[in-house]
Amino acid sequence: MVLVSQRVDVLADRGERRDALDQRLADWLASHGLLPVPVPNRAKRLDALWTQLKPAAVVLSGGNDLAEYGGDAPERDAVERALLARAMAEQVPLFALCRGAQLLLDAFGNRLERVGGHVGTRHRLLIDGRETEVNSYHQWGCRSLAAPLEVLARSEDGVIEAFFHPQLPLLGVMWHPEREAPFAELDGLLLNRCLNKE
């Protein structure tokens, strides 16, 4: 069982703030034998959810900018920061993608910067000696990392596209594995690396 954070969609005409998750993310996780459980963006509900479900892992999903960088979902920031704190305290693997990776970078003291040419495109990367191509939908990124995080891959323009924590099971990628058709083998390998199943 894997706890998965959700984006916040604001429907102003209805006065609603809705939690949402790309259905393909559930399919991608299921293709690796994981049962995704969406987490509501209500920090006060998180302790009970964690205690009842005892997750094997956490996935921080994509969508929404961090509030600090102009985003409009501070409740999501709070929930994801709480998920990260709990995962680190209990050494539960945490896999972060796109916006989730940005939160992970920020949480470790890395200042994000606006990056051009990273929305609606693809990048070639070298990861563990393997050349690959990934999708890209982000406008925020980093070109350098504060310790203890370490770079796993960069795009051709020097933006960090994948990174990990050397002592904890934390791994972030700046792309969306669920948007690949068919799902990419490398994304599964990175997920398994995070889950300590390699």
From TrEMBL:
Lineage: Bacteria, Pseudomonadati, Pseudomonadota, Gammaproteobacteria, Pseudomonadales
A UniProt-annotated Pfam family: GATase
GO CC, one annotated term: cytosol
Domain Glutamine amidotransferase: 37-179
Annotated InterPro entries: Class_I_gatase-like, GATASE, PuuD-like
Protein's organism: Pseudomonas berkeleyensis
Protein name: Gamma-glutamyl-gamma-aminobutyrate hydrolase family protein
Alphabetically ordered keywords of this record: Hydrolase
GO molecular function: hydrolase activity, acting on carbon-nitrogen (but not peptide) bonds, in linear amides
Keyword presence, Hydrolase: yes
Top-level taxon of the source organism: Bacteria
